[in-house]
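Researcher: Please generate the 3D structure of the following complex. Treat every line as part of one assembly.
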Amino acid sequence: MKPGEEVSPEESPSTAESSPVGAGGAEVDAIVVGAGPAGSAAALELARNGHSVVLLERGPFPGSKNMYGGVIYGRILDALVPKWWEEAPIQRWVTRRQTMMLSGDQALTIDYRSDRWGDPPYNGATAYRPDFDHWLADKAAEAGAHLVCSTTATGLIHEGDQVVGVTTDRPGGELRAKVVIACDGANSFLAREAGLYENLDPANFTVGVKETIALPPEVINARFGVRGDHGVDIKILGCTGGVPGGGFVYTNRDTVSVGLVLSLTGLAKGDRRPEQLLHRMKHHPGIAPLVEGGEVREYSAHMIPEGGYDAMPELVGNGLLVAGDAASMCLAAGVWLEGVNFAIGSGAAAGRAGHRAIQRGDTSAAGLAGYRTRLESSFVLSDHRKLREIPHLVMGDLAQTRLPGMACGVAEQFFHVDNPAPKPGLRRIIRSEMKANGVRMRDLVRESVKAIRGFG
Amino acid sequence: MSGYSQISFETRMDSVEFRVAERAHITVDDTLCRDCSVRGCITACPANLFVPTSDGGIVFNYEQCFECGACSLACNTEGAIDWSYPEGGHGVVFHKT
Amino acid sequence: MSSPRTFAPPVVAACIKWVDLRPELDPVQGSLAPSLHGGGFSAADLSAAETALSLAQAWSGSAVLVCAGPANADRSLLDVAASGFSRTVRVDVPGQLATATVAELLVRTLGQTDLDVDLVVCGDMSYDRSSGAVPAMLAHHLDFCQALGLLSVQPMSGELAEKHTILATRRLDGARRERIKIPIPAVISVEGGIATLRRAGLHASMGEAARAEARVETRGGHIHGQSDPPRTTPWRPRARSLAGPSGESSFDRILELTGSLSDTSPPRTVKADPAEAARMIIESLSEWGYLGNDD
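Model: Done. Output below.
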C-alpha cells in the first residue's frame, strides 16, 4: 500500500458512539497517557485517592513498547507497593557494579561488589520491561484505574487555554477529564502539542540499541562471577566508534543484555549504523568473552532523552502534567544511568499533585503547580539540578575518546613489565599518555573542575 | 578475535515481533530529500528503514519500525519525515528487553 | 434446511480460540514453552469475528462471542468483545485438549437454547498446530450445514435476503473458485485475510475493562477429555492412496511401477518466437490437464 494512505475510519453504527457526558463535562477525574512506570505510578496514586482514572496504553499490553539500558532502582516503590521485591518480576539483583573504559583492544575496569545488595531492600535490579511495566500497571488497575490498552492518544482537547481531555485513535475516541497526565514517552507528542516543549533539541537525545542474548544461567554465573539470583551491571565508556555515547552489559536470569547508547546527532552525521557499532563493541576483547556463543533472542531500540535538567520541557500546563521520559527525566550522568526510578518518582508526584488539584477544584497551571515543588524537594529534580552539567561533560570529546584512551594507556604502561628496562615513573607515564591521546593539561583541569563541581 | 560472526540484519529483525498496521505511520516527502546533504535518517534509524535511491530520493518501510522517533528528530529538513505512533495495538511488541 | 426460525433476527456466533501467538521454542529440545504476553487470536479468528459482526449487522440480528481458552484469555477476549458483541462466553479450555473434546465443549455452549445460535463463524485455522477440524465437528454435532475455508462472505440480497442466506466463495483445486449459497443454520469458517476486525470504540473498551469479570460468562470445564496423544512423527500431509500395479507377473508389475516401457511423449525442443512459444506452453499444459478446459 502507498505510504500515508488514509484508511477510512470505522463508520458502523455499533461502534460509533457519543460521549456519555455533554461537551465541557469531565467524564473522569484524570486521564493518564502511557502505562509505563511514570503513568502507572500516577494512576496508582490517583486511584488510591479515590479518583476515577483512565490509564491509556498504545501497546497491546503495558510494557510492550518499552526497553531500557539496564537497572531498576526500586526503593522509590517502597511507598507505593510495600515489599514490592516479593512480587515484582525481577530477573537478578545487581550485586556487582562495573565501570569499564575501552580503547583499542584495551580495557580498564572499576569493579565494586557487595552481597548486601542481594538482600532486601536491595539496591538495583534487572528486569524485562514488558514484565515489570505490566506488573506495575496491574497494580494501578487493582487500585481501580481503568487500563485501556491498544489505544493511541492522538492529541489534546482544549477549551480556551485549558486542556480538558485527549483524543484517541479509537472510534468515538474523545475523552474528557479534569486533568491529563502525559507520560507518553521520549517523543512527548502531547507536551509538544501543548507548547510545553519549545526547547526540544535533537542534540539532547540518544538512541539506545540492545541485544538480549540467551545463555544458560550457569554460564552467566561463571562468566560474570555471581551466584543464584545475583547479577552484574556494567557501564562502558569508549568503543562507540567515534559516535558520542556509551555501552552497557547486564545480566538477566538466562539472558545477557548488551547495548549501546548513541548520540542521535552523532549517529546522523556519521556513516555507521547502530547495529554495526554494537557488533564492533561485542567483538572488543573486554566484552566478547562475556556475550559470545549465545543466540540473539531479541533486538530492540528506543529513544532516550538524556539532556537532563536544562533540556526538560515545562512540566505543568493548564490541566496538563508531564512526567517520566516525556519530561526528559532520564538521568544519564556517566556512572549513573537511571530512568525507571525517576519515572516512578515523577509519576507518583504528578498523581499526588493531580489529586490535590482535583480536590481543590482548580486544575489550572496554578492549581497544579505543586507538582514542580514536589519534584524540586524530592530526588527527582534535586538530582537532576545537581548533575545538570554532567550529561554535556560525558558526551564531550574528552570523556568520550581521549579519556578512555589515556586511562587505558596509563594502566598499560604502569602494569606492563618491560625488563631489563626499569619501570618508568608515573608522572612520566601520565605525561606521555596525555600527549599520545591529545589531552591537554588545561582541558583536563577544566573538565575535572567541572566534574567535581558537577558531581557535587 | 572471537570466533562468532555477525548475524544478518534479517535474522536480527526476525527476533522482534511486529504487529503491522494497515496504515503507514511514517511518510517521507522525498522531494525534500534530494536537497538534503546530511540524510541522518539513513544511519540513525536502528531498523534500517530508510534507504537512499540512486536518483537522490529515499525509499522507506514502516513495517519493522521500533517507534523510537529517531528519524523525525534526526531529519534536518523540516517536514521531510512525518512520523507518528502507529494505530493502537499495532507496531513493535517487545518481550525480552 | 429452511426452518421457520430463520426469519427471526438471527443470532450469529463467532467461535474463536485463544492461542499463544509467540511461544518460545527451545532450539535444542524443540519443546515449546508458553510466552508470558503472547496470548491472542489468530488472524483467521479475528476475521471470523468481523464476519460475524457484519453479518449480524446486515441482518439486524445479534452477534455473540464464544471463545475456547483458559482464564488468562479474558483480557484479550474483552478487547474483541468490545467491538460490538452483545454477549461473551468463554468456554474453559485449560491447556491443550483433544480436538474432539474442544468441539464437544463448544457445542455444549453453542447448542444451548439461551444462545439459540443460527450461524457459527470460525477461523479456518489456529496457530497452535491444531487439526483445524473443530468447525466440521461443530457442524456435525449441531446438525448444521457447513462450508469451510471461505474466501468471501456476503449476505444475499433479493428474496433470499430475508431467509438469511449467505453467498460465499470457496477455493477449489487448480486455483479455481466456486461460489456457493449457504442457508442457515450453518457453520462456516473463513480465512484470515478476508476481513479485519473493526476497532472497538473508546467508551466500549473502557466499559469492557471496567466490567471485566461480569462480562465473561464461563462455561464448560469438567469433561472426561484428555489431550491428543503426543505426536512421535513429524507433521506431514496425509498420504494419498494409489492403486497398486495390476500386472500378472512381478516383471509386469515392476514395469508398470517404473513406467519404463509405457508410451510417454518424448521431450522435444522447439524454436519459436515468444508469442508462439507461450501458445505452445499453454497448449501443452492444458493437454496434460494442468489447466482447466475453459482456459
